[in-house]
Amino acid sequence: MAEFWAEWGALAYVVAALWAFFEGETFVLAASAVGATMGVIDPFLLMGAVWLGSFLGDQTWFTLGRRYGPRVMKRYPKAEAKMATATSMLLQYGTLFVLTFRFLYGIRNVAAAACGLAGMGKLRFAALNFIAAGVWAGSFVAAGWYLGALIGPERLFHVIAGGALLVLAVVLFRRFYRRRRSARTVPVI
């Protein structure tokens, strides 16, 4: 990551913004931790880049949900369950949901589309999304920065690799558990 930033310079912040456009928690944490240990990344530029990327990404999903949501739901019934969950949370929590959904792993993009599908006002969503993207960017850059400063450059790779392996293990366990559970519910003929 430090080599990437040193080689790409200012364009690395554009890549960070593009990464945050889609998701990016892990990338932001790693980049800011490397910035703290190696000194090649400006935390304020990183925060601004991922703030903008996250904001624009969710605005895009909101617009797509508003414009194409009903047609997409008919074509992809599996997405309907996630959309129903996000819409239910939106109706129950409203503003609080928009301010916090990007912190809930796996529903960020769907949640923004659900806000559009549910008919939330464009200006209201844009204002809440801008605030939430800033809080998200600031908190993940700060967390990564302090984590990097705390563990130092020697152990940074091991901590990131260990975290990635832990996430992979959890994902594989959940997938195995779901398959096993669904296999038990299928009637034998």
Distance between the ends: 55 Å
Number of DSSP-assigned strands: 0
Average pLDDT number: 84
Poorly predicted regions are none
Largest sheet, strands/sense/barrel:
none
Radius of gyration: 19 Å
Q: What sequence of helices (H) and strands (E) makes up the elements?
A: HHHHHHHH
Total of DSSP H or I helical runs spanning 4+ residues: 8
- Rough outline: globular
Strand proportion, as a percent range, falls in under 5%
Textual characterization of the structure:
- With 189 residues, the chain is mostly helical.
- It is 86% helix and 0% strand.
- The chain has eight helices and no strands.
- It has helices spanning 2-8, 11-22, 25-38, 43-75, 77-93, 95-100, 108-117, 122-185.
- It is globular, with a radius of gyration of 19 Å.
- This is DedA family protein.
Q: What topology emerges from the helices and strands here?
A:
Layout: H1 2-8, H2 11-22, H3 25-38, H4 43-75, H5 77-93, H6 95-100, H7 108-117, H8 122-185
Helix pairs in contact: 2-4, 3-8, 4-7, 4-8, 5-7
Domain VTT: 33-145
Protein name: DedA family protein
Keywords: Membrane, Transmembrane, Transmembrane helix
Short account of what is shown:
It contains 8 helices and no strands.
